[in-house]
Structure formats: structure tokens, C-alpha cells
Specification:
Radius of gyration: 13 Å
Helix content: 25-40%
Largest sheet: 3 strands, antiparallel
Order of helices and strands: HEEE
Shape: elongated
Structural class: alpha+beta
Oligomer: single chain
Strand order of the largest sheet: 1-2-3
Number of domains: 1
Length: 63
């Protein structure tokens, strides 16, 4: 298994930018679910990031 060399905060920032574009297009409340794969405890774990535009918070949920 390969180690993922991406930086989580850059992916989260990218997700927020995508989320803002989607919000402007659709004009409604959208929760963007952005899936990242991080190297976590010797195995790859998908991290689901919920970007909430109204609360300006980022939620990370490990599955």
C-alpha cells in the first residue's frame, strides 16, 4: 500500500472553494462531502469532510 503524500489542509481548502462555487450556482444550502484518503495507523482510512457554509466549520469523521 502506498503512503498518501497529500496535505489534508490543502484538500480541505480546495473543498471549501468548490463548495462556494456550488453554492453560488445552486442558490441553496449544500453540504459538501469531500473524501480524502489519509495514511492513518498503518492503513488508509477514508476521511469524510463536511463543509458547512453557514457555521463555517469543518467536520472530520473517521470511518
Amino acid at each position: 500500500m502506498e503512503k498518501v503524500k497529500t496535505k489534508p489542509f490543502l484538500l480541505i481548502r480546495k473543498a471549501i472553494i468548490l463548495h462556494e462555487k456550488n453554492f453560488q450556482k445552486k442558490k441553496k444550502k449544500i453540504f459538501l462531502i469531500y473524501v480524502m484518503h489519509l495514511f492513518y495507523k498503518i492503513r488508509l482510512v477514508p476521511v469524510v469532510v463536511h463543509v458547512d457554509r453557514y457555521n463555517s466549520k469543518i467536520y472530520e469523521i473517521l470511518k
